[in-house]
Amino acid sequence: MGFLKTAREIALEKTSSDKLNSQEIADIKQHTKIDTILAKYYKDQIEPDQLWHHLKEIPEKYFGQVQNNFLRSFTFQSNPYDADKRKRGLLAVENLKKINRSSDIENYFDQLIQVQKDFQDEVDRLIEYVKEDLEKNPEKRLQTFQQGNQIIIKELTVEEILEQDKGLKQKLNQIEKKYSTKFNQLKEKMAILLNKTEE
Amino acid sequence: MDMDERIKYAFEHSKVLKWPKQLLSSFGSSEVNYHVLTEPVYREFTKGEAETVVREGKVSWYRPQLITPEYILRIEGFSEEAKNTLLAIASEMPDLANILYRFHFKREVDSMSFVSGSIESVADKIAGDIDRRGDNLSAIIRGEGDLWDISLSKFILDMMTRSALQSQFPELRKKGLITYNNLGYQAIARDAQGIPLIAKKEIDTMFDMVRHGDMDPKDLKIELDRWGLFPLYQDRFFDLFKRG
């Protein structure tokens, strides 16, 4: 992933061998402030339109790191609520910058959300296919456990069928790999854009 | 082919040539007569007329039982692997309807005969005979050589699956003992107190049997424990032992 190391990460790496200079100490202080603000934001204690108020004392050079934090914490598995929260956070911070690239950021972020949606649509289509197949072959829905002369028959859930059918499971893994790769590539491009903005 | 591959081959290549007209009973025991037809193992060494080995016997099933995943966990005999799967189901879908089948068959067949003719022609003759007798509980299975018992095992399993699908689940739904849960799966119906209706029904019958001396109270206690209902029924259980 093309995220730059934060000043804080660099500084923390240095603590084991070298002494910190005054700039590095200042960086750590700023990042601690940012972490506190973001923790509140993720806990819904700060609304996106209130972010500017909390970040107004943070120098602009740290905004890229704030945005990187939003982007890093947005994963392929993130739910729509978390995605929206990060998107709004990213744009709110972008609006505080002198050079504003909101439309590019929004465009990238929407593409990321679209990849998630495309993935879910393809999974839904596969599940629909499994359901139709089960309608035609209801015996596939039954699972048996045997122990000697005792047999238990139970109905399988669609999830269990997907889990137990090697072919379907492989197909599901392939779909997930295809979309998560696409997602991560886009995220990397977006990280490059954010780091450029920082310059 | 090693033994595992042979068993797999026999399992996959066995075929039911005639299914019993009747499915397994949902509310009683069942007995099915089987005829497993195989080619004689010596066939490749003979050039004469085709012969078929016919093995006949019976498979008996006790009354199928509708149970919860938790109930199964209290039954002895299932492997750790099966129990782990059931434990996961019990926590996610504690009401999922399961049907327990207990069956019995002797590995020694009742009779074995060598009949002239191919498997198909012998099967036709036996099928005609079954129909003439009006026998609704006989099956003809095409087996694989000396692994005929694998073919029979597959038939037993398929017979239960067919019966569960076409008879037990629909009939138990009709009686209100199974209902569909909010996810669309068949679940055990419960009363206002949360007691499975099927458990209530079976336990009431067992109390009657114990009262009339037709059942050992120990068996009733085992059943109450398997349903996890002993605390609810304990007063009634101990009343059975009061004199006068």
Distance between the termini of chain B: 70 Å
Q: Percentage of helical residues of chain B?
A: 40-55%
Given helix and strand content, the structural type of chain B is alpha+beta
- Residue fraction in strands of chain A: 5-15%
Instruction: Identify low-pLDDT runs of chain A.
Output: none
Largest sheet of chain B: 7 strands, mixed
Number of domains of chain A: 1
Give the strand order, joined by hyphens, for the main sheet of chain A. Answer: 1-2
Number of helices of chain B: 8
Q: How many H/I helical runs of chain A?
A: 8
The residue-averaged pLDDT of chain B reads 89
- Overall outline of chain B: elongated
Name the helix and strand elements of chain B from N-terminus to C-terminus, one letter apiece.
HEEEEHHEEHEHEEHHH
Report the oligomer.
heterodimer
Radius of gyration of chain B: 22 Å
- Determine the mean pLDDT of chain A: 86
Features:
heterodimer; A: 199 residues; mainly alpha; two-stranded antiparallel ribbon; 8 helices; 2 strands; B: 244 residues; 2 domains
How would you characterize this protein structure?
The complex is a heterodimer of chains A (199) and B (244). With 199 residues, chain A is mainly α. Chain A has one domain. In chain A, 67% of the residues lie in helices and 6% in strands. In chain A, strands 1-2 form a two-stranded antiparallel ribbon. The radius of gyration of chain A is 23 Å and the shape is elongated. With 244 residues, chain B is of the alpha+beta class. Chain B folds into two domains: 3-64 and 101-174, no CATH class; 190-239, no CATH class. Chain B has helices spanning 3-13, 69-73, 80-92, 119-133, 148-174, 197-211, 217-227, 230-239; strands at residues 15-18, 30-38, 51-61, 65-67, 98-105, 111-116, 138-142, 178-180, 186-188. In chain B, strands 1, 2, 3, 4, 5, 6 and 7 form a seven-stranded mixed β-sheet that branches. In chain B, strands 8-9 form a two-stranded antiparallel sheet. Classes of the chains: A mainly alpha (199), B alpha+beta (244). At the A-B interface, strand 1 and strand 2 of A face helix 3, strand 5 and helix 5 of B. Strand 2 of chain A pairs antiparallel with strand 5 of chain B, so a sheet runs across the interface.
